[in-house]
Design brief:
This protein is an alpha/beta fold. It is 41% helix and 21% strand. It has a 7-stranded mixed β-sheet, with helices on both faces. β2, α2 and β3 form a beta-alpha-beta unit.
Length: 179
Amino acid sequence: MEEPHTAGRARFTLVLGGARSGKSRHAQILAMANPPPWVYIATAQALDDEMRERIAKHKADRGNGWSTIEEPIELARAVAEAQPQAPLVIDCITFWLSNLMLGAHDIDSAVARFVRSLDGRKAPTIVVSCEVGAGLVPETPLGRAFRDKAGLINQHLAVSAHQVLLMVAGLAITLKVLP
């Protein structure tokens, strides 16, 4: 029997971890356990040369069989428009949150729409997010608001997910698995 908060919900995996923990690579491996085509929704924005290089490297590393949707704000729409039978990686929630906060968007409404969009997915779906609660308390009010909101979103996603993994030094630690 499913837990009440996940009954009737889409099955998705949440992959959490710190910077350079192997989150994205592991999410891609999970998706590639299924036949292509695979879809990657990227939320990062290329606002400077260094970020443009990172994004280009990520795309190159994914290789053939992947299509990329770049969507920094309207994540629910991007999920709804993704091929419904294709395995999907959404990377990453914390970049998306940054974009929402800096653009003064209604975060709670956007998160609710995003979670509802996952309910329509039939194919494997992997959501990547940074675990930001293990570090120092940020110095600025914006940094603290970001940390707090990211933690709450991760908690919400973890409750809804059927599987939650924590990446540490490239290793996946299983935190939750529902049948």
